[in-house]
Amino acid sequence: MKRVALSLVLVAGMAASSAMAADMAVKAPPAAAPPPSPWDVAITAALMTDYNFRGITQSAHHPSTQATFEPRYNFNSSWQGYVGLSGESIDFPNHAAAEIDLYGGIRPTFDKLALDFGIWEYWYPGGQCYNSALASCQFSLNNGNVVVQNESFYEWYAKATYTINDNWSVEGQFYYSPNVVGSGAPGEYYTGNVTFTAPSTWFSNGLGGYASADIGWWQLGTSSAFYGTAAFPAGIPYKSYANWDAGIGLTYKAFTLDLRYYDTNLNQGDCNAFTSDHTAPFNGSFTAINPSGVGSDWCGAAYIAKLTFQTNLSSLK
User: Tens digit of pLDDT for each residue in 221-246?
Assistant: First the structure.
């Protein structure tokens, strides 16, 4: 009898436990994290002691500021599309108010090889025409140089970057424009770069560093008749030239301080013919395409410091 009673107690206990277990709330599995958004925006701001473009100052060797806003869309882990808007302060001979850059393209990536294809518009609003020989201009620069009102132009470009390892990468770029700085001359620009990124063990407290060097060649054609001379009435054949730069940089979080040396192989006379430098004095820099003897130092050696802040909108959330 005792055995039967004990069995009944065990059965009742098991039934009660089952009923309690059935009544307990079942813990829901953790919710899956939402996939990252394919959209992002890169934001850049910079201060520099001089704005240098392919070895030539764009700010008459004066300090310049820069700001860039670049929305991006990642189609997948290997394909990115982008558009961008950038602005820089400049000092141009035609007194253009600023440089406004509009650009867009795609960036495919294949393991260590990153490619970039797109188009870039350099827009210089607010310019005036300087060429007293033309009734449509009515103005002349003090040193006799002439310059078109609209120096805006666009370029197609292709870039390739190969990351060798964590410390070394190399890059090649090609640009083509049918109308460089509104001069009427076509231009093809080739450039190569090598970058060394210092190992993280070299620094502490979040600091980083790098060294890089670039070399380029701008193959330039003949200008329109606007820039013609007695020897070249249909337009001057611009001097194609090489440019190079080398420098080091320190990084801390979103900030980069870059210290760099720039130079070209253009002499002051051919530099003046290409840039129409409104600050250039007469110094006897006569060349075949520069009969005025005015010489410009805009294409000479320059040492430039640049402080950049760069982040993505996704990093600010």
Answer: 999 999 999 999 999 999 999 999 99
What structural domains and CATH numbers belong to the chain?
36-316 (2.40.160.40)
CA distance 118 to 83: 9
pLDDT at 20: 46
Tokens 């001359």 sit on residue: 185
274: left (phi over 0), alpha (psi -120 to 50) or beta: alpha
In one letter, which amino acid is 51?
A: Y
Chain centroid, CA 285 distance in Å: 33
d(CA 235, CA 38): 49
Q: Is the pLDDT of residue 303 over 80?
A: yes
Q: Are residues 263 and 245 in contact, defined by beta-carbon separation less than 8 angstroms?
A: yes
Q: What is the pTM of this model?
A: 0.89
Instruction: Please tell me the distance from the alpha carbon of residue 225 to that of residue 12, in angstroms, as a whole number.
Output: 107
SS3 per residue for the chain: CHHHHHHHHHHHHHHHHHHHHHHCCCCCCCCCCCCCCCEEEEEEEEEECCCEECCEECCCCCCEEEEEEEEEEEEECCEEEEEEEEEECCCCCCCCCCEEEEEEEEEEEECCEEEEEEEEEEECCCCCCECCCCCCCCCCCCCCCCECCCCCEEEEEEEEEEECCCCEEEEEEEEEECCHHHCCCCEEEEEEEEEEECCHHHCCCCEEEEEEEEEEEEEECECCHHHCCCCCCCCCECCCEEEEEEEEEEEECCEEEEEEEEEECCCHHHHHHHHCCCCCCECCCCECCECCCECCCCCCCEEEEEEEEEEEHHHHC
